[in-house]
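Slide 14.
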Amino acid sequence: MEGGDTFSVHGNGNQVDNKAFHTFQKSFVQVQSILNQNRLLINEINQNHETMIPDNLGRNVGLIRELNNNIRRVVDLYADLSLSFTGPMEASSGGDSGGKLGHKRVRHVNES
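Slide 15: predicted structure.
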């Protein structure tokens, strides 16, 4: 964004400043890095599982813990990012969340 310090958000003409854009970009770079690390962890876990060597299977316990922690970090990054963008937009639009914005995940159950 070399020409100015703001850009339009599609649809409603709201302006998001350059700082917010860089925060957004930084978060996605962090998420991508973690996801790349997870891909490597999953590959190593699969290789260890295929060997069926007790030491390798034992190592998988720690690798799976690391994978779970990384997934938690990604969820937290997305939640923080979401809150950082919805909070200012709700305030500017007069929306009232009642202070109940949180890190709640909704599970959808497929009905057969």
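Speaker note: The chain is about 65% helix and 5% strand.
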